[in-house]
Amino acid sequence: MLDVMRKQWDAIDPPGLNTLATPLQQDAFTWLSDSARQRMLADAHFALRSNADLRKQRWISYLQSFGRVFGPLAVLGWPVALAATGAGLAETGLDIDQAINGHTTAERQSGFVAAILCAINTLFNASLLREAGLNVDGEMRLPETDEATALPEPEPGNATAGELLAWVPEAYAPSEPGKLLEALENNDILSSVPGDIRFQGVIMERGKHYAMVGDLTYQVRFIGELDTWAIIDPENPFSFTQTMPLRLDADGNWKIAERLRLNGGTPRFLLKAWGRLHPRPKLPALEPTPYEVPHAQATALREAANGDQDIALTYNAEPPYRLYRKLRDDLAADARQFFLNFEPRPRPQLPELPLAAPTSPFFRELYRHSEGLVVGESHVERGARQFLVSNMGQLHKAGVKVIYLEHFLTDFHQAELDLFNQTGTLPEALRQYVADLDALASQFEVTPYTLKKVLYAAHAQGVRAQAIDCLASYRQAWHEKPSSTIRQEMMNFFAHRVIAIDQASRGPSKWVALVGNSHANNFMGIAGLAEMEGAIGLRVEDIEVGQSGGIGVDPGHTFEEDGMAAWIKSDLRLQVPISRPWM
């Protein structure tokens, strides 16, 4: 009003007054005050934004950024497409709200355009979900086939308390009550007398509470949640694991109560927290060969199997050592007779070789022409073990179900290997044996390429480990060797028998073997496992980083064997660049 009057101060009949010719029901100044207040509120509503408006704008920005980043990635898989579709629907709803309730024409137009574009993007993402077989309930549709498809068996019930204890690693297992009590004994001399009611049987001394269990004293505290006293560790009185609950017997003496535990079990998928989900089925033991040490005599020869009694194996006249020498001589005689009449199997066609390191198509092609691959190594080189650790997944995809291993004895180590195949944990005796093998192979240097890593890589891919040596073939304790190739004869013959028994008993499957390179192919006239099994031999050798390696036809290699030059050659040769930062 003042603005109008200031501009029309000299008008005889100012046109800005009472332009609507509306009669007022109240005095003019009250009406002007109310009108000004309403205009201020309208201006504030137009110019100022509420927290709800700001949150909507912020979420629109978040969802637009999410769509720009993950929208193009939706083609990678249905989980990404599902997330992009959900975000697109939310953004579309917010854009529609802006198109309807925007403060200005520009905001409403912007919301209208954004809603259309976002809806189109969301439809594209939803089409990817349809292609992936996801229905409206978010469940994957099973493919329709003419024949009924066997569905996986439903997950069994919860893991029991006993299964939990079996799966928990030893370092995390509950302590034995006797050992824990011994660690918590207290030698303080008590002069007070026990209290009564709540403190019945409890002695208070220098602000601490003690109880007598038998003739021994323990520091205790009252645990309200358990409504009982419990023996505690004085150094860690509030520890949950280092406590032993107590109870009073009928004579008022303290006794150790059973420790509380979650006896209800737990969902089986939580067992994965210990690195395993399900124990694999236990396979029946293979039929023993006539060259293996019987179980009754195995204990007496355990140290000899670990390589600690070669002299005793050669000269000791006690029955266990005489038994070893008889088994050794029988195996040597049968092996020599076998090779006198041996006729090699037809050689498989070699796969098309890649330019560099083996790839997934190479393994598929290799196992298309052969059921097995024999990897030959020099035991002091790392390349073969690195090759197996790095490519165990590719071998598994090619259908490999078992790895045959030199150095492991069927009569001493296979039972422990079977337990490892089932649980993924190396028993202590086998773990120490593998550690000793790795130490000798690495010449006591620290290296990441070990036999232990090969075992764990195989288990992770579901590849079973099988020994192909025995005490008689592995421990070459001769007063005088019958020939320079007696080890190759005995081990190759025995491994051939074990592989045949294993494939017959546990079903035919593709396999890989890790052996010394003199066992892979023909060596000094003795057929290798590759010739005996109709498999392909691959000799692996280390080269320095920077040299050109790769895989190709093996040109052969000369080395020294028992002071004599020997020629070794396989079907293929793989040269592996080995970095030695540990040296």
Automatic annotation (TrEMBL):
SUPFAM superfamilies assigned to the protein according to its UniProt record, in alphabetical order: EreA/ChaN-like (SSF159501)
Lineage top rank: taxon: Bacteria
Name the UniProt record assigns to this protein: Haem-binding uptake Tiki superfamily ChaN domain-containing protein
Lineage: Bacteria, Pseudomonadati, Pseudomonadota, Gammaproteobacteria, Pseudomonadales
